[in-house]
Amino acid sequence: MPIPDKIAAAKKIDELLRGVVTQGGLRIKYRITVDPPLAEERDWERPEILVELSGPDSPLLLERGGELLRSLELLALEMLRLPGNEHEKVSFDCMNQRAMRLEELRMAASVAAEKVRKSGIPYQFAPMSSRERRILHLALRDYEDLHTESQGEGLRRSVVVFPKNYRPAGKPARKTIP
Predict the structure, then answer these.
(1) pLDDT tens string 4-26
(2) What contacts 158, CB < 8 A, 6 or more positions away?
């Protein structure tokens, strides 16, 4: 379901960021784009509102894996009251960090796929956000000899890549009832 009033949502995000930048004394500029054109690096993310930040204090936003950037995004999502399954509709980026992370995840998915193919042993990624887990699932969806699952709870949730017909040692195959 699309954001009902994207212009009003963008204005709310602008008010939030204006307050954070001003009160925080940050040297950051930002651009809010409603219905941004799809860029090649964003083919798995199709935000309805894209917020791009830049400026001398950009490194602050990107420290610790972009923790502050993700926090600003989360504040915006909460302010807009978007349910968890609609968080991809708003995307914050700084100095093209998000596109670089997408490429990093794609490469990690490819490496994991080869490891699983060669060893026959499942590969578990480190815990990550639901958005990053989704990207891994999408990156691996066309590998017909593999399948992926998210396992764990909360902040410990991660993606596991399995060979297609993998069964742990000592466990019988699942019985299918016709």
Answers:
(1) 889 999 999 999 999 999 999 99
(2) 124, 125, 126, 127, 128, 133, 150, 151, 152
Q: Can you give the CATH number for the domain in which 158 is found? A: 3.30.1370.50
Indicate if the alpha-carbon torsion angle 94, 31, 46, 16 is positive or negative: positive
Single-letter code of the amino acid located at 48: E
Overall number of domains in the chain: 2
Helix (H) or strand (E) holding 34: strand 29-34
Q: Are residues 91 and 119 in the same domain?
A: no
Whole-number Å distance between alpha carbons of 178 and 162: 25
Whole-model pTM? 0.71
Among 80, 95, 110, the domain-final residue is 95
Q: For residue 113, what are the domain limits?
A: 102-163
Give the DSSP H/E element, type plus range, for residue 112: helix 97-119
Q: Give 107-139 pLDDT, tens digit per residue.
A: 999 999 999 999 999 999 999 888 889 889 999
- Give 52's strand partners: 31, 93
